[in-house]
Structure prediction request, 120 residues.
Amino acid sequence: MRRPLDELTSKLKCNCSARNANQSQEAAPLGSETNKPVNRLIAPTEEARRERATTRALQREDSRIRLRDLKRARDRESKHYVNCPLDYDTKTRLQKAALENDVKMTVIMKAAIDQEDNGY
Prediction:
């Protein structure tokens, strides 16, 4: 009489041997048929590695330039600073409103100025 553990191990051995046989047949490189390198983690030739590194460097450079331009545009928009003295109570109310609503104090001040009912 076979034990359940023995049956499981024999099934696992059969599945593993069948899987290994299938893998050996599928392991033939596809690049030899199409004359293109197989897309792997590491490129097979030095030329392919160099080409991949160059394209990545160019993409990083483009990203860096776009980020720099975005930062410059943001700085251009926020160059006009306004200093105004506020009494302590108004300043604390403004800080509390900014903290509770998770916005900057300048956003609240701008919204207050942009209201239609004050005529500005």
Summary: DSSP finds five helices and no strands in the chain. The longest helix spans residues 46-77. Residues 48 and 54 are 10 Å apart (CA to CA).
